[in-house]
Amino acid sequence: MGRNEKPMIYFFYGTDASKAKQKIKKLINVLLAKKSNALHFYFDDRSLDNEFIKGLFQSTGLFAEHHIIFLDRTFNVLESRDLIKEMKVSPHIFILLEDALNKKDLDYIKKYSEKSEEFRGEGAVKRESRPKVFALTDALGDRDRKRAWIIYRQFVDEGLSVEEILPVLFWQVKTMLMAKNSKGAKETGLEPFVYAKSKRYADKYSLDDLRNLSRVLVKALYDSRKGRDLENELEKVLLMV
Questions:
Q1: Which domain holds residue 87?
Q2: How many domains in the chain?
Q3: Exposed (0-12), middle (13-18) or buried (19+): which is 36, by Cβ within 10 Å?
Q4: Residue 93 has what DSSP assignment?
Q5: Which of 115, 144, 154, 239 has the most CB atoms lying inside 10 A of its own CB?
Q6: d(CA 204, CA 198)
Q7: Stated pTM of the model
């Protein structure tokens, strides 16, 4: 992250998920303070997209900076246990939280984690159904402003924060830009599936449109770090597509 912060895996586990999440929130704030350009992604076992996670490992041109990915009890829905190994050697920081794994799985994650900490107690955080944020990126890619607006309003009403939505929208626009400016998946470093999807979406936009969307979303990301309420601003952006 910053000059003294190297990519790593932080692993928090145990029965007191509430206390662990408090610790994680403080950690993320510290990491973001060290690297203001970093994006912060949050996924739980209901919102995780395995293609996105794999894309993080390979999209060197897109993710040249080190970013923070918080995976909230997702181990059992990862496409492969080997993704933990790939997290270890990626340029990003991963924060893993688990509360109900067997000893074998716990030991496996610990093996690849630079830092791990157990939280015992009765403060388990209730799991609530979370919306799939990638439904919104698909609407953005299809350039369907009505569908994008409806999905966005549903997400906001269901309690999804703008800070969780923005990084994934930014990722979608950046992959579309990469696909627009390249001759194939190998040139971009994107997974073939991600490249094909991004290229299909990119064909619906002009290069100037995508560059403008990228600029607007970058500004929104920085403004959100300053504590600005961006709910209405992001709604306006989606109505521009």
A1: 9-118
A2: 2
A3: exposed
A4: E
A5: 144
A6: 10
A7: 0.74
